[in-house]
Amino acid sequence: MPGNAFDSNVLIYILADDPVKAERGRFLIAEGGTISVQVLNEIVSVSRRKLRLEWPIIVAFLKRLKLLLNVVPLDTAVHDRAVALSWRYDLAFYDAAIVASALLSDCDTLWSEDMRDGLVIDGRLTIRNPFAA
Questions:
Q1: What domain range includes position 15?
Q2: Which CATH number covers residue 116?
Q3: Which of 8, 75, 94, 95 is spaced 20 to 30 Å from 84 by Cα?
Q4: Shortest CA distance to 107 belongs to which of 88, 86, 128?
Q5: Residue-by-residue pLDDT tens, the chain, 133 positions
Q6: First to last CA, the chain
Q7: Looking at the 3D structure of the chain, how many domains does it have?
């Protein structure tokens, strides 16, 4: 079933001090979708290091995401696909891992602020910037 996948940057705005981007992120995840464990890891890292959030807030947010979204584990299939995607599309490796998880979950859209808006991966996954005008 085609669906949405999310990069960590879209979800982190839900916690940050940008009400417009936070609302857009909440709107997108309300329909459900897919994230990888890589995304959860990045959310923890940025929430602590950059946003300086307390652990109870981070843990509650992670729990909410896990209830709303399908979480794809990191395994060797994701890793192998990420290596190939990074090479073929010149993606940063951790971005490629998120793309690989989306492809392996049969998603057709990956929402990301940082990846190339409009890029089509393997003819079936389109990267979209949810904040583009």
A1: 3-128
A2: 3.40.50.1010
A3: 8
A4: 128
A5: 469 999 999 999 999 888 999 999 999 999 899 999 999 999 999 999 999 999 999 999 999 999 999 999 999 999 999 999 999 999 999 999 999 999 999 999 999 999 999 999 999 999 999 998 6
A6: 28
A7: 1
